[in-house]
Design a protein that fits this description.
- This protein folds into two domains: 317 residues, Ribokinase (UDP-N-acetylmuramoyl-L-alanine:D-glutamate ligase, 3-Layer(aba) Sandwich), CATH 3.40.1190.20; 286 residues, TIM Barrel.
- Helices cover 41% and strands 17% of the residues.
- The protein is built from 25 helices and 26 strands.
- Strand 6 and strand 7 form a beta hairpin.
- The radius of gyration is 30 Å and the shape is elongated.
């Protein structure tokens, strides 16, 4: 794993991303923190046995010894005054929204903060780049008019691994936040109005600060916050994040989560907060997915000391960069003791082993994880989770197409590849297999024994020379009508090139699998062609690699087949070779492929398999047609299935012919393209007659018919399909490919 280089590259790009970032809306509670090192405070607190101070000291000692951070509510009315008299504290900014706004402003990214208490002391802690709403204006925090009566400070007791606290030796660095009273959300009606006005152009909104609410104010606070979230969403804001925080009272936490989270789209919490919210067995990823399903979210994020993890229904590549940006900002702050901009990896940071794959797909969710630069003995632990949140939202709030994601990240043979729209090698390769206007008009001619069976009445008489001659003839006849050919290495690739039947202007795809499969018919494992692979494809000038992927998620070999795709994604990424995956649904024991129930299940399986393959980081999908076109009802259902398929993927897709009659395939192409397909990748439905006709005069006519079919399908594709023409604006290009970008590419 080369996390160090990934983080260094990211630290270079962050300032550029911040400079053009849309605003983040940050609410809803801000306060002043009084920060005190626990190892210095404990002897003073514990000096009088039996006193309220000593009882607090015992509680803090236990938490430090166990490495427990979080927040507690202490019933000690005189506590703040006692601490002011006996302990020395340093003032700091408190509140998730405020800490996130501070980190963003320091980077140069715009942030609007909800702030009801505007005492000079509170305003003085804010970075001048933080913006506040004042009447109908947006002003700098340092330009805002002071006002408000002030709030009691939160007292932060920090402890550091290896620094003794009385008789205890903390093994983990953290802090305990001590509150002595409940507090309401910030009353800032100007923020409410201004943030809804900014929502159409904002990148993200933060809802936080509910863990200090007095019981009698909970329902009203939730109603107010949900009204705000709904207003943001109605105005067009897609990323509305609820950051949980630590709750001294579980009942309050559960009321807030149940009332507020369904109005958000994203939910974030620490590992300890997750374990408190969702106790019992289950790994963090499974618990995150369960929360996402329960509340209808598109993202759930968990952060821990040495890693971060997210379940997302969005772009997993963008999510990986978001997690890394959050980890980098948090580690930089931990090392510096205050919010700071990263300059590479903080000194002393280490990367603990990642307990999860970098990339996985479970239950319809993309799972993304990254190792974090871990500082064992940080200069401070305050605000690290909030700073992590700032980094995540900075990246996720970027306009589509801005993020330059990673070339490759490996973990246990899993790699997340740079998307084809960003990897310059993949960009060029996909250009070569599309038409000038961005459509995939591709003829599949990678067939083996089933192709030979068409060449003579007795297939046993068909030899190697006859097979390659037939393929050369078809390639030469059909090349004028296609954007690319899919060929096999055994009979097609070298002969088509050496004969010059394949023009240089026509793209070239190659299949990597061998004929058939390993294992039983009901437990099919991909069989790769011996002596052939991605490096030889690249050396030959092949533009894209195609994998036929037998897949049933409930089969005994499903995990093996998933790993096949993960490994091939990694391998192709290392060569900047686009990967096209062709999921194939097949019957399991006891299933009747002729039954209506199986056919309905197959349709859903085609859709789900496409979604899952997309999640592994493939560059393009070649899919079976999900439905039947023999009736009007069947065609309508197929259009719906194709639309559902399209809605769950982020890569271009084409329809395969599976040897159906040409008339039916023509209808299938039209339906698929209306739903978002970018073309077709068809074989026997196009050229079966041209291959099986043996009379020379009839063969020429059949070849002409095949060329006409390709031209007709291309016209249908252009009329109804979605062109694949990803392009960046000049400003985005400068961010995606900073000067000397090539130095870190494909290392």
């Amino acid at each position: 794993m080369r996390w160090e280089q990934r983080y260094r590259d990211l630290s270079v790009r962050l300032p550029h991303l911040a400079a053009t970032a849309p605003p983040t809306l940050c609410g809803l509670t801000t306060c002043i923190d009084a920060c005190i090192p626990l190892h210095r405070a404990w002897p003073v607190l514990a000096a009088e046995p039996g006193s309220p101070a000593a009882m607090l000291a015992a509680q803090l000692l236990h938490r430090a010894a166990e490495g427990i951070g979080g927040e507690i509510l202490v019933d000690w009315p005189d506590g703040p005054a006692w601490i002011d008299r006996h302990l020395t504290s340093a003032p700091g900014l408190g509140g998730t929204g405020a800490q996130a706004a501070q980190a963003l402003a320091l980077l140069g990214a715009p942030a609007l903060l909800a702030l009801g208490d505007r005492t000079p002391a509170q305003l003085g802690l804010l970075h001048p780049g933080v913006r506040l709403a004042e009447g109908d204006r947006i002003v700098s925090a340092h330009e805002a008019r002071p006002g408000g009566g002030g709030k009691p400070a939160h007292v932060i007791f920090e402890f550091t691994a290896g620094t003794p606290v009385g008789p205890a030796m903390p093994r983990r660095s953290s802090r305990t936040i001590v509150r002595f009273a409940d507090e309401a959300l910030d009353h800032d009606p100007d923020f409410w109005r201004a943030s809804i006005g900014l929502a159409p152009e904002a990148g993200a909104g933060i809802l936080s600060g509910f863990n200090g609410l007095p019981p009698e104010a909970v329902d009203a606070a939730i109603r107010s916050a949900t009204d705000l979230a709904d207003g943001w969403r109605a105005a067009g804001l897609g990323l509305i994040h609820h950051e949980l925080g630590d709750y001294p009272r579980a009942a309050l936490r559960d009321r807030v989560v149940a009332g507020l989270t369904p109005h958000a789209t994203s939910f974030g919490l620490s590992l300890s907060e997750l374990e408190a919210l969702s106790p019992g067995p289950g790994d963090p990823g499974a618990k995150a997915r369960a929360l996402g399903d329960r509340f209808g979210l598109t993202r759930v994020c968990i952060h821990a000391d040495g890693w971060a993890l997210a379940a997302t229904r969005g772009d997993p590549m963008a999510e990986l960069e978001a997690l890394m940006a959050g980890c980098l900002l948090a580690a930089t702050r931990a090392a510096a003791g205050v919010p700071a901009n990263p300059d590479g990896i903080p000194p002393g940071a280490v990367f603990p082993p990642l307990p999860f794959p970098v990339w996985d797909h479970r239950d319809g969710w993309a799972m993304v994880a990254c190792a974090a630069p871990y500082i064992e003995r940080p200069a401070a632990t305050i605000g690290l989770g909030d700073t992590f949140l700032a980094g995540c939202l900075l990246m996720l709030g970027q306009p589509p197409g801005i993020l330059s994601t990673l070339t490759s990240v490996e973990e246990d043979s899993t790699m997340v590849s740079l998307p084809a729209a960003r990897d310059p090698g993949k960009i060029r390769s996909l250009q070569r297999v599309t038409s000038a206007d961005g459509f995939f008009v591709i003829c599949a001619l990678d067939h083996l024994s089933d192709f030979q069976e068409l060449l003579a009445p007795d297939p046993d008489t068909v030899d190697y020379a006859m097979t390659i001659a037939a393929k050369i003839e078809l390639v030469r006849a059909l090349s004028p009508e296609v954007s690319a050919f899919l060929l096999d290495p055994r009979y097609g690739l070298a002969p088509a090139l050496a004969s010059r039947a394949l023009p240089g202007s026509v793209g070239l795809m190659a299949s990597i699998e061998d004929e058939g499969y390993n294992g039983a018919a009901a437990a099919r494992e991909t069989r790769f062609r011996a002596g052939w692979g991605t490096r030889k494809m690249k050396a030959m000038g092949v533009d894209t690699c195609k994998l036929l992927w037998f897949y049933r998620p409930e089969s005994a070999v499903a995990d093996h087949q998933r790993q096949v795709v993960r490994d091939l994604v990694a391998e192709c990424a290392s060569l900047s070779l686009p990967l096209v995956v062709e999921p194939i649904w097949y019957p399991l024991p006891g299933e009747d492929p002729s039954s209506a129930a199986w056919k309905a299940k197959r349709i859903e399986g085609i859709v789900a398999s496409a979604h899952e393959a997309n999640g592994y980081g493939v560059d393009m999908l070649k899919v079976e047609f999900p439905g039947d076109v023999s009736t009007e009802e069947g065609r309508a259902a197929a259009l719906d299935a194709c639309r559902r398929l399209d809605g769950g993927i982020s890569v271009p897709w084409v329809i395969l012919s599976a040897g159906v009659g040409y008339a039916d395939f023509r209808t299938q192409v039209e339906i698929a393209c209306k739903a978002g397909a970018s073309g077709f990748l068809a074989g026997r439905s196009i050229w079966r007659d041209a291959a099986s006709t043996h009379d020379p005069a009839k063969k020429a006519a059949a070849q002409k018919d095949a060329a006409g079919r390709l031209a007709e399908l291309a016209a249908i594709t252009r009329k109804h399909g979605r062109p694949y023409v990803p392009a960046l604006e000049p400003a985005a290009i400068a961010q995606a490919y900073p000067e000397f970008w090539y130095a870190g590419w494909q290392n």
